[in-house]
Design brief:
The chain is an alpha/beta fold. 59% of the residues lie in helices and 7% in strands. The protein has a four-stranded mixed β-sheet.
Length: 278
């Protein structure tokens, strides 16, 4: 899996035009453009999709507004700040990618051949998006919270990439799939990188579901009965081991196969969880 962090001027300009203004100067710039080029402005409303599809090969039908923005001091400042943010993310990724790559290989168990471009926008735009069926694996990324914890920012990006790789499941199984993705990235890989358990983090509404899946997630990683005890003590997620016969077949599956197992046995998994509460 190869990841590049890039800044695309057109996409940055589009977000400046159509996301909430991140400064009074940008708001005034948008107002000037609207006043003088309202029809041209409106034509660009859905152009972000085309930019995502073609990225470096994108050529606008009309570059009047883009040229106006590119020449403005407001845009130059936003681009400078965005590039600083890009370098920040890239530095964190470069520092940890060896462990991330080996963990992804071990835990996904299928090859990720895609080259991902993380198209960085200003963090104050606070936006993440991608096109599910786009052959170019591009993810638009800009989150306010990233600058508070660079490693956690990389985990959020990795979580989005895993979701991209896994794709869609039936709506009824969506929570299980997301819970497994959370166990993989936000819990297990983040734990390996930080050096202490991160199993109390992740999607809050899935906390109970993840606890139900947790014993099987350990079995998927190849844990035997003694290791189950060790890991649940580390992660402070106790369960009654006697209720969980070791499913040795799980260690032979890839992540999609494990998700299929969890989805097919969800009623059984929930019942076992109820036994633990008695």
């Amino acid at each position: 899996m190869n990841i590049q962090f890039v800044v695309n001027d057109y996409l940055l300009a589009w977000n400046l035009l159509f996301r909430p203004s991140i400064s009074s100067e940008i708001q005034k710039l948008k107002e000037r453009l609207w006043k003088n080029y309202s029809k041209d402005y409106l034509k660009l409303e859905k152009e972000n999709v085309e930019i995502l599809k073609y990225t470096n090969d994108f050529i606008p039908d009309d570059d009047t507004i883009y040229n106006f923005i590119f020449e403005s001091e407001e845009f130059k400042l936003v681009k400078k700040q965005t590039d600083k943010y890009r370098r920040f993310l890239m530095k964190i990724w470069d520092s940890h990618q060896k462990v991330i790559q080996s963990s992804i290989k071990e835990l996904l168990r299928f090859k990720v051949e895609n080259n991902y471009q993380i198209i960085v926008i200003h963090p104050y735009f606070d936006n993440v998006e991608y096109l599910k069926k786009n052959p170019k694996k591009n993810i638009v990324w800009g989150k306010k919270e990233d600058t508070e914890d660079g490693l956690k920012a990389i985990m959020r990006i990795l979580f989005t990439i895993v979701k991209y790789e896994i794709g869609d499941y039936k709506p009824d199984d969506k929570d299980i799939v997301t819970a497994v993705e959370d166990l993989l990235v936000i819990n297990e890989i983040y734990t390996r990188l930080s050096g202490y358990s991160r199993y109390n983090e992740g999607v809050k509404k899935l906390k109970t579901l993840k606890k139900q899946l947790y014993p099987y997630w350990l079995m998927y990683q190849g844990c035997d009965r003694e290791e189950l005890v060790s890991f649940m003590m580390r992660d402070k997620l106790p369960f009654d081991i006697d209720n969980y016969p070791i499913e040795k077949g799980l260690r032979k599956l890839d992540l999609k196969g494990f998700m299929d197992f969890c989805c097919a046995n969800k009623s059984y998994i929930v019942k076992l969880s109820e036994l633990d509460k008695k």
